[in-house]
Fold this protein.
Amino acid sequence: MSYQPLKGQKALVTGASSGIGAGVALSLAAAGADVLVNYASSLAGAQKVVDQIKELGANAIAVKADVSKEDDVKAMFDEMLGTFGAIDILVNNAGLQQDAPFTEMTLAQWNTVLGINLTGMFLCTQLAVRAMIKRGIPPGSRCAGKVICMSSVHEVIPWAGHANYAASKGGVKLFMQTLAQELAPQKIRINSIGPGAIQTPINRAAWDTPEALASLLKLIPYGRIGIPEDIGNATVWLASDAADYVNGQTIFVDGGMTLYPEFADGG
Ligand code: BGC
């Protein structure tokens, strides 16, 4: 059996039927956690993740919810607490892009992206934190709960053509830091992960031809695209007691994308 720092803990991962969320759910399960696998539309994807988690020896359920809708989120947390009895770890991962030049961006594109990427974090985090405070610090853990927000390198890197997405991730940064400050006395830790380019459906156009990949790699000093497991590994560490003194931080997991790579031979 591998190292299991999260043995017996209960985790909820939003947007876990594919991409980074699926990778994170599997890494948490490999580290010993039981996982609620949230999905918005792909039951088949979520079910596959649930099956893989069970093969790892952990418990899992798939629950449909649109994280931007209060009633959906409430029903999902009722299932979480009804099935697992507690929540130790919330991973606010659900997110999407609806890209458009700013002059053409519709209000619907703006609202959808802000709704899922930012309001979804508000709704899920509020219910998680209330349950964590009510339950308190469980035996065997150093804190009452951990919240991990999936941000992006675009919480610091401006991104033309993606005003809605970049605004949502900039919002995640101060949402996370403010809650970290506010909830630390209750022994809840809140941090973000800022992934760079991770090979998932959200950015398929950036890696699915050799030309696109070559152009993407110019932005990544470490010379490879990321995989969901890179983010899963960071999530396990942040959720574990090994990171007990880490609060209010964004850990960039990006192969160096935030290091201004164009300055390596310029400037
Ligand atoms: C975006 C991806 C993009 C990556 C690096 C992520 O937040 O969702 O589409 O490839 O940032 O730019």
Observations:
- Residues 10-253 form a domain with the Rossmann fold fold (CATH 3.40.50.720).
- The longest strand covers residues 188-195.
- The first helix runs from residue 19 to 30.
